[in-house]
Amino acid sequence: MARGQLRSGSSADEEAADDLAEAFAAFGLQCESNPIDDPEEFWLWPENEEVFAIWGGLQTQWTAGMAGAIGLNYASVEADLRMMGVPSKKRREYYLLIKHMEQAALEEWASKR
Predict the structure, then answer these.
(1) Which domain holds residue 93?
(2) Into how many domains does the chain fold?
(3) Same-domain check for residues 68 and 101
(4) What pLDDT is attached to residue 85?
(5) Cα 54 from Cα 37, distance rounded (Å)
(6) With contact defined as beta carbons under 8 Å apart, do 95 and 77 qualify?
(7) What is the CA radius of gyration of the chain?
(8) 9, 38: one domain
(9) Please, what sign has the CA dihedral across residues 66, 71, 77, 79?
(10) How far is CA 68 from the centre of its chain?
């Protein structure tokens, strides 16, 4: 997401596109474009939708230094989890998932500098 897409072009994507074209051909259909290459579209597992929506809402909570973003304001993360009604048993899991997303975003932004 930090680089504007959730995956980079890979041989796995090419294989998936070939498999999709083969499946279409089995029904006498033809793909006009490759849906695998659409950078505007990405898929989430249903169990990740809630935490991803919370992640999106936290994008105004970055702390910044001279070199740019340095991390999320964790007090805001905790408050947001509570305000969104995340049950206390799930808060720790979501907090850790958000920290993973934070780290991935920071690494991607650092690679762009």
Answers:
(1) 44-113
(2) 2
(3) yes
(4) 94
(5) 26
(6) yes
(7) 18
(8) yes
(9) negative
(10) 20
Q: In the structure encoding, which two tokens stand for residue 105, read together?
A: 């975003």
Q: Helix or strand or coil: residue 78? A: helix
Backbone angles phi, psi at 58, to 5 degrees: -90, 0
pLDDT tens column, 32-85 = 666 555 566 677 888 888 999 999 999 999 999 988 899 999 999 999 999 999
Calpha distance 44→47 (Å, rounded): 8
Helix (H, G, I), strand (E, B) or coil at 29: coil
- Within 8 A by CB and 6+ apart from 13, the residues are 7, 36, 37
Same domain for 66 and 106, yes or no, is: yes
Structure confidence by residue, pLDDT tens digits, 6-33: 444 455 566 777 777 787 778 887 766 6
**How is residue 91 written in tokens?**
């808060």
